[in-house]
Write a structure and sequence with these properties.
615 residues; alpha+beta; Beta-galactosidase, Chain A, domain 5; TIM Barrel; 2 domains; 9-stranded antiparallel sheet; 8-stranded parallel β-barrel; 13 helices; 23% helix
């Protein structure tokens, strides 16, 4: 038995999987799997080990695995280096996991759960976004395509599926789950060995693959490529238990702290759906006062605080719009704090309009968007040739953004930023590149993004970072490690849809990540509406200051009640009634943590009613 697998099996208690035939656990597209020779394995720390493998032509991989006993999990990652004298040609993917798992007969035909990613503003029920899809892998003599879970074509990580998979045995008693940490093109694949009903009754090999793709490059001598970090956790129970195994590990070892404390699902006001781009510091004041009276914690100015016409101003980050903020943003932020609220705002650091200040000052920092779009399937595609994508592989570009965020943190007292990412990056990553070079921009971008976010979080420990990508187009373990929440979806105007989004996302992520706002153009919200927005961040983005007194009081009471149970939303999660097939179907979700629980029920006695109970 390979030393790495023996350690993995012992630490994760993988009793249902026999020894793989693979000498190494990883795979590099373009290098044959049998070319690798294990050179050694060493302990880095008490919980981290590194395996080194090489080929005869100079390829070398250092593959790390770090164990977490408290969550029965391992995080694995690595680096491929060319230590030879010739290029390693036609590399297509870097798979942190690529091996055959021999499932023992008792495991049976496994169930696999994937979670859908995002489509833009789909207005049907049940929604596509964050829907659970369960499939059983069957023993058949015909197996051609891989059961694939992957990023979409555009390059944003959850424009397709969420980068995770849960696998359990046929009886729902044990299994394993994965989550990929890569904010670009990734994939997870499961390919069972073809086997007929009358075939061998022995172990059943299922090939497991997980890593990044989208490469067509030649690795020159001295160059290196990453094998992205992948979380692998084992569990006892069914697919729901697998989701809770992911939630527990992410809560304890991935979710960043906020000023040294565990982050809670927030309460916030966002100006956008009440004002759009038509506002001034003076016109915002009634909203600030209402937000404070309602007990909210953050008041956030979304897009539009800078000069320029809407998105044409993206890249004008130096100062606020002088017409909207005649005295500057700092006095308005001071006013927000005087009302007992934290001040927040919106940035889109990775894109800039070509007429903006940042682009004109540093055009060499940007990769252009091609004027002719890529040929793609039908649907909403976000590609505007007036915008450039910043090269975060450049140290000077990262430093500019670190300085800008720190300046807003210090001068404006910003304690919340929405970090948006509104276009598909893949056209920019590949534009005007020859075969042999495709992939470098993606890697520079993702690694640079992680580096600058890590630096910002270190410099601003009480800055709440809300990751956004026109909603939830970039939800992955990398952004979860470098953000306290996600603006999970831009569809905010139907309570049943918002409820489905939050309940779906909670399948694999703790509740702090499922942020949304109440955004409908009315004030007569009911308990059903409030609870449909309360399985994650509980915000408001409407004309709250115009609400009649009774309606305002109902919302204020809902905020106060939410604060009494929001920590429980970080704990284990169950949907006893499963995914509803219609908005009016009875639905129940249960969160539990530390001996406490909160149960939300919808459409109990009639459509549109709801209740909450705590124990």
């Amino acid at each position: 038995m390979s030393a790495w697998f023996q350690m993995l099996r012992e630490q994760l208690q993988f009793d249902h999987i026999d020894t793989p035939q693979s000498a190494v656990p990883f795979g590099i597209g373009g290098i044959a799997s049998d070319a690798w020779r294990v050179a050694g394995m060493a302990r880095v720390t008490g919980s981290e080990h590194v395996l080194t493998a090489r080929t005869d032509d100079g390829a070398e991989v250092e593959w790390h695995m770090q164990f977490f006993a408290d969550t029965r999990a391992v995080e694995c990652w690595g680096v491929l280096r060319n230590r030879g004298s010739q290029p390693l040609r036609n590399l297509s993917e870097c798979l942190t996991w690529d091996l055959d798992l021999p499932l023992q007969p008792a495991f049976g035909e496994p169930w696999v759960r994937r979670v859908n990613g995002v489509r833009f503003l789909a207005n049907y029920f049940p929604p596509h976004d964050f829907a659970i899809v369960d499939r059983q892998l069957l023993k058949t003599p015909q197996v051609y395509p891989t059961f694939s879970i992957q990023a979409g074509e555009g390059g944003r990580s959850s424009d397709g599926h969420l980068p995770c998979a849960i696998v359990c045995d046929a009886q729902g008693t044990q299994g394993f789950a994965l989550f990929v940490e890569w904010s670009g093109l990734w994939r997870i694949g499961l390919t069972p060995e073809p086997r007929g009903a009358g075939g061998s009754a022995g172990d059943w090999p299922v090939q497991l693959q997980a890593g990044l793709w989208g490469l067509a490059l030649h690795l020159q001598p001295g160059q290196s490529l990453p094998l992205p970090r992948v979380l692998l956790t084992a569990f006892d129970g069914d697919l729901d238990d697998g989701g809770n195994a992911l939630r527990r590990h992410i809560r304890r070892h991935v979710m960043p702290s906020l000023d040294g404390e565990e982050v809670l699902p927030p309460t916030s006001f966002n100006h956008w759906f009440a004002f759009l781009d038509n506002f001034t510091a003076k016109s915002l004041r009634p909203a600030v006062e209402a937000s404070a009276a309602a007990g909210l914690e953050y008041f956030c100015i979304d897009s539009g605080w800078f000069s320029g016409d809407g998105r044409d101003g993206v890249g004008n980050w130096e100062e606020g719009d002088s017409e909207k903020f005649p005295g500057g943003i700092a006095p308005f932020a001071d006013y927000v704090r005087s009302q007992g609220l934290n001040y927040g705002t919106w940035f889109e650091p990775e894109w800039a309009h070509k007429d903006s200040q940042l682009y004109r000052a540093h055009p060499d920092w940007f990769w252009d968007t091609p004027e002719v779009p890529l040929v793609r399937g039908p649907g909403m595609h976000f590609q505007d040739s007036n915008f450039g994508l910043i090269d975060l592989g450049l140290a000077e570009a990262r430093q500019w953004w670190l300085d800008r965020i720190v300046r807003a943190y210090e001068e404006w007292g910003v304690r919340w930023i929405r970090w948006d990412y509104s276009q598909d990056p893949r056209p920019n990553w590949e534009h005007n590149l020859a075969h042999g070079e495709i992939g470098w921009r993606q890697i520079r971008h993702v690694q640079g993004l992680y580096q600058v976010l890590d630096e910002i979080m270190a410099a601003c420990p009480d800055l709440f970072i809300e990751q956004c990508s026109i909603g939830g187009f970039r939800i992955d373990l990398g952004t979860a490690r470098r953000g306290h929440s996600f603006w999970m979806n831009d569809h905010t105007t139907h309570s049943a849809l918002v409820r489905a989004f939050q309940h779906g996302l909670n399948t694999v992520l703790p509740g702090n990540y499922a942020n949304t706002n109440i955004c409908q153009d009315r004030h007569d919200y009911t308990t059903y509406d409030f609870l449909s927005h309360s399985a994650g961040g509980f915000g408001y983005s409407g004309k709250l200051w115009q609400a009649p007194a009774a309606d305002f009081e109902r919302y204020r009471a809902a905020v106060a009640e939410f604060k009494t149970y929001r920590r429980i939303l970080l704990g284990d999660y169950r949907r006893p009634t499963g995914q509803p097939s219609s908005p009016d179907e009875y639905a129940q979700v249960i969160f539990s943590d530390g001996g406490r629980s909160v149960t939300m029920e919808f459409n109990c006695d009639m459509p549109g009613d709801a209740s909450l109970s705590m124990a």
